[in-house]
Structures are given as C-alpha cells and as structure tokens.
Amino acid sequence: MTMQVLFDVKQRTARAVRLLFLTTLISAAPAVIHAQEDAQSEPERITEPNLALADAPRQNLSGLEWLQRLAQINRTSNFEVSFVLTRAGQEMTPYLWRHAVLEDGLEAEQLNLQNGPGQEMIRLGNVVSVFEPDVQPYSIYASAISGPLPSDLLYNPGALSDAYQFITIGRTRVSGRAAQQLRIVSRDNKRYNYQAWLDEETGMLLKLDMVDLQGSLLEQIQVTAVNVTEQPSPYFSRINPQALPGAVAMTPKPRQHQWEVKFLPVGMEEIKRETRRLAMTGQVVEYKLFSDGMVDVSVYVQPAQDSLDSDVVLRHSTNTFLSLTNGQVQITIIGKIPPQTAYEIAHSIGAAGE
Amino acid sequence: MTQQHEKLSAFMDGELDDNGFVDSIKNDSESLAKWRSYHVIRSGLRKEASVMPEFDITAQVAAALEQEPTVLAPKAGWKSLPIVNKVVPLLRQSGQLAVAASVAAAVILGVQQVNQQPAAEEPFTTFQTPMIPGMPQTGMAPVSLEQSNIVPNNRSGDSDALLQKRRQINALLADHEQQLKLKQAEEQSQQAAESEPNQP
After folding, report:
1. Using one digit for the tens of pLDDT, what is the confidence trace for B75-134?
2. What is the DSSP-derived secondary structure letter of residue B148?
3. Chain A interface includes B73 (CB < 8 A)
4. DSSP strand E in A55-134: where?
5. Any idea where the domains of chain B sit in the sequence?
6. Residue A327 exposure: Cα atoms within 13 Å on the Cβ side
7. Are A149 and A279 in contact (CB under 8 A)?
8. Model-level pTM?
9. Cα distance from B36 to chain A (closest Cα, Å)?
10. Which residues in chain A have their CB less than 8 angstroms from residue B76's CB?
11. pLDDT tens digits, residue range B43-81?
12. Domain B2-55 has what CATH class?
C-alpha cells in the first residue's frame, strides 16, 4: 500500500518534470510543420514531435470524443503502425499494422506478426484472410482483424460506454509525440482497467496498458512508429484478391442450454451460445461467449465425469482460467478478467428459468 | 533506559551475548525504534545507506496490511489444488496465480493425442459447423500456448491423471483462443449473405 503511494509520488514528479519539459518545448520551438509525405516515399520514422500542431480546442475533448476521433481515423485514413505487445513474464512481440482505403472505397487492413514464422492477416472489406504456419490459409467474414487491440476500442468506442468510463488525464509524451492520456475504467470494478495514450495531432493510438485492480501492468501495447499517408501503402496494390482463399460462411446454430449465467459484470453481454466438441479432446461442451467490447469471456459447461476432479485456477498469459466442479457439471471460465470475477461468474451459474 | 541503549549498542557491535536481550527489544517499541535508527546511522556511516531515518515503512506497511481486505478466492487453498501444487512450485514462492508452465507442458501431449477423437455418435450434430480449411477439428495447432522458454520439469514424475488434466486445460484454452478468432464470423456471415444473396 504505502510502497504504491510512494511510487505514485515518484511517478507524478517524473510526469511533472516531463510536462515542464513539454511546455518549454512548445513555447520555445518554432512551428515545425511537416508536409504530408508522398505515398511512394519510404515510410518516414517519426523523429520530431510536431508539438506546434496541438491546437487548443482539442484540449477540451471528452474521453469518448477522443476515442471517436480515433475510430474515425482508423476507418478513414491510410496508415502504417509498428507496435510491440508485452505481457507480464513473456517476450515482446512486434507487429506491423497497415490500413488503407482503396480507390474503390474498399477498406483494406493488414496485421503482421513480425517475429518467428509470423502470422499474416489481411482484411479486404468484411473478409479476413489468415495465413499461419502449419495451417492452410483460410478466410472468414469479419469487420475487423482479431488482433491484440480490441476492435471495439479501435472502431466502435460507443459500444464500450455501458461497461467502461473514459476519463481524460492530461497531456504527456509517448513515442516522441505529444499525447493525450485516457483512463478506461470498468464501471463496476470487476474487470481490468486500461490506460490509453492518443496522439494529439493525428488521433492515433500510441500506447495501451492493461492494468489489474491493484494497478500493476499486465499487458502493454507500445507504438514505435506511425506513418499516416495520403495514398494507400503500395503493399495493398500487391494483393491479388482472387488469390486469397474463399471466405467460409458460418451460420449460427444456437442451442438452448439448461443453465444460465446470473452474474455478469456491467455491460457484458452474451454474443454466442452453442454446443460442440473440443478440437483437442473431443469432449462435448456447452459453450457461451460473453463480451463487453474490451474483453471476451468463455464459459464452458460439461458433464462432471470427464472433469478435472479438482478445482483449478491458473493464469495463462493474461487469461484467467478457473474451473469448478459443481454437482454434476464442471464449469470453466476463461478470459482476461480478475480471478475474483471469474469466481463470481462461475458461482452464479444456475438452472435456466429459475 | 540509558543502560538499555548501551546494551543495544553493544549488541549491535556483537559484543553482547544475551539471547533474552533480543526479546526485550522486540517488546519495547522505543528500543525497537532506536535499534532501527542505529542501523540506519551505521549504514549511513558505511555509505551503504540509501534510506533516510524517517523513511521507515515497515510500521506503515504492517498497519496497511492489517487493514487490507482479504482477497476473495476459491475456498480451496492454492496448495490444495493438485495441479498447481505439483506443477508450479513457483506459486508457493511468489504467492501469485500459477503461471502457464502446466499448460506449456501439456501442449506436446495435446498434439500427440489429437487424433484419438471418439466417434461422433452422440446426438450433438452442431459441431459440424462448416469446416474451415485451415482449422480442421483434428489438426488444429495448439494456438499460442506459450511460446516462451518454460520447460516442463520432472515429466517422469507426472502421473497419467495429471497429464490428462493438463490436456483438458489445454483443450479449453485452445478452444477459447479459437472462439475469439471466429467471434465475428457468424454475425458477419449473415450480413454478407443478406447483402450479397447471389454469392455462394
């Protein structure tokens, strides 16, 4: 407790110093305005903060307005972003993310995992094609690539309002840019919280932290380079849409379950329910998927005879894995939520209609 | 009291051989404070000190700990969870939730046993969702289950039951990851079908 406070004080001092530094820069630096570079030129790494461009009215935007601006940029502009994903206790994973609006108005997006054998996901309109090692390429219908950044945060922040509050903190400097800091806080304190830093000039996301309820960092996405261009990246002109695998349509087959989840964090909703077999063991499970836009929670219910015999709580990467045997059934909760919340969800499961 | 301080000073220098003295300090808050500041001064003299005498957090931390609410956790203690207990001794040291070591160990096993699926005789037909070429139910790669350097320790000591357990945990985690990938697919498929009815 006390340590935390002391640390905060230190941080605050550091921030104050940084801010001071920023202010000095703003007042002293002459207006350096970079013309938007030609699309054909090599992507230019950001070296100088365009602090002079930060105009006053933006200071008054609310948290949601900042995120709406982010969504607007993400849907309509041509950009190339490099970022690294860091999770507690794991190596950093670098990604390259490109987005473009092609001449015919079609949205194109690419997310590439840069280390190891890699993984490439390409979205043209509402079809996402996935290329992974050891797996045949495939395409599915989706309006966003499912990557480390929550798609609702990038494209539809309004959908998060039920579950989270957006609080503007102030200006800081991230990736060498003047940035606006936001906190994204769950309304009921049952989920992890986030801090986001958005570029003041372009509105792009520069950094996203996921912190647990005690404030320690669980996952961090740090942008290392942003390049917003007028023309789409030449990469997209090299994609031959005919060469991509055909999209597989998946028709939902909702099944009625005999059970329901009676406790959910505020703003979390069921988005899928079905009965199927697990790919790896062939066990039959009844399944529900819940989402609040930032995190997804899977709930599995299966007969207790193939159960784990004992209750298990694990943390796998940033996911909480909790499994309880309750009478005749084994209940498993998986998702990026605090163990206490997983426990509450698991214990709220009861017979449907009661 | 002065005598007490002298004894304290002597004790610090290792010149006092009296075990009972330690207890008498422990029970006397004034001596305890003295003891602490002597140490700070000594560290300062030896230029080891990075602390200020008033920077005494132990008392505050202890007080804060007492006020700390008990963390809600499953009734079974961590140590009574067999998988955690056997697989991740780290847990006991750090008091954290178990790391993914147990899962990492199970990955290999999952791949080996992937083809031993029971025949599809149960009445659950729903699993015949359209086959995605890259994601057949059998050959699915163990998705993103820990690429880091955690090495399964004492494999030989693992019982079948434990391995079975890991495999099940692994299967659920892999399924969760897959569901997230396909999250939007159904809804969007419908929309695509509605907007382009002529498409196959």
Report:
1. 444 444 444 444 434 333 333 333 333 343 333 333 333 333 343 333 333 333 444 444
2. S
3. yes
4. 78-87, 93-101, 107-113, 119-124, 127-132
5. 2-55, 119-130+140-200
6. 6
7. no
8. 0.62
9. 19
10. 310-311
11. 666 665 454 444 444 555 556 555 555 544 444 444 444
12. mainly alpha
